[in-house]
Amino acid sequence: MSCFGCCEEDDIGKHADGGGHYMMKNSVGNEGHYHSTDAALKSQAVNVQPIAVPSIPGDELKEITDNFSSDSLIGEGSYGRVYYGILKNGRAAAIKKLDASKQPDDEFLAQVSMVSRLKHENFVELLGYCVDGNQRVLVYEFASNGSLHDILHGRKGVKGAQPGPVLSWTQRVKIAVGAAKGLEYLHEKSNPHIIHRDVKSSNVLIFDNDDAKIADFDLSNQAPDMAARLHSTRVLGTFGYHAPEYAMTGQLNSKSDVYSFGVVLLELLTGRKPVDHTLPRGQQSLVTWVISFSQFSLLTYVVYFTSYIL
């Protein structure tokens, strides 16, 4: 898992509930044994609303992950490695240790403040955060069934990993609808509106009862400096999911997310990866392969894909 995405340009400067400017408060969260870090207290340069999740001590995170050992490692997402741990309040958590960054603490905490207010049943909840020297950690609710990628293709980054049980059509529809609702929330109902920038099957997490939640958007592109974001040369998103216009302009918007989500739906429908170099030429790109069937009727599509999956 990561971080987070970027606000729409028209929404820069808006706050989560449309109110005025707020400063970071001294303590956060509703669990008595968690308190703000010194870094949060020093955040005077950026006016933000209070962070709505607790600051978790670095020592606690090291303890529950065995000092971020390989035994606790459960994945490697965008911008950092993810570890499993049980918080002191008894809740299972996915603990993302972010890659090194030169981003100032006050800017990072301002972004965490915005993300901490994102609450939706189809969006992965941020449970806490940690700023401990140069180390930054984000703590999320744990997805009991892994990601959609894990189920369709096997655990990402693990050689020889096998896919999970074949999903029924009912399960596929529920997962698709849940993920769509999560993306709709980011695009249209959160305030400010958010562009995810990296929609893919590994960022659709599956919980009990096949509940799907959108996860892992890029926090670093939440920078308040619009010029810095627009002139960034870092490539965003994942190969195979990019909208065509991104290759031409380098700019992303909510429609880019929708295109990427369409690729996820094709994965869910066909069981194929977005790009698979083990397949014959002409079939390696999922989108190109599907477009090649454009002369067929919708019924032919359904019959072919059903027979492929079964």
TrEMBL record:
Keywords: ATP-binding, Kinase, Nucleotide-binding, Phosphoprotein, Serine/threonine-protein kinase, Transferase. The keyword Nucleotide-binding applies. It comes from the Eukaryota. ATP binds at K97. InterPro entries: Kinase-like_dom_sf, Plant_StressResp_Kinase, Prot_kinase_dom, Protein_kinase_ATP_BS, Ser-Thr/Tyr_kinase_cat_dom, Ser/Thr_kinase_AS. Residues 68-310 form the Protein kinase domain. SUPFAM superfamilies: Protein kinase-like (PK-like). SMART domains: S_TKc. Belongs to the protein kinase superfamily. This is Pto-interacting 1-like. The lineage of its organism: Eukaryota, Viridiplantae, Streptophyta, Embryophyta, Tracheophyta.
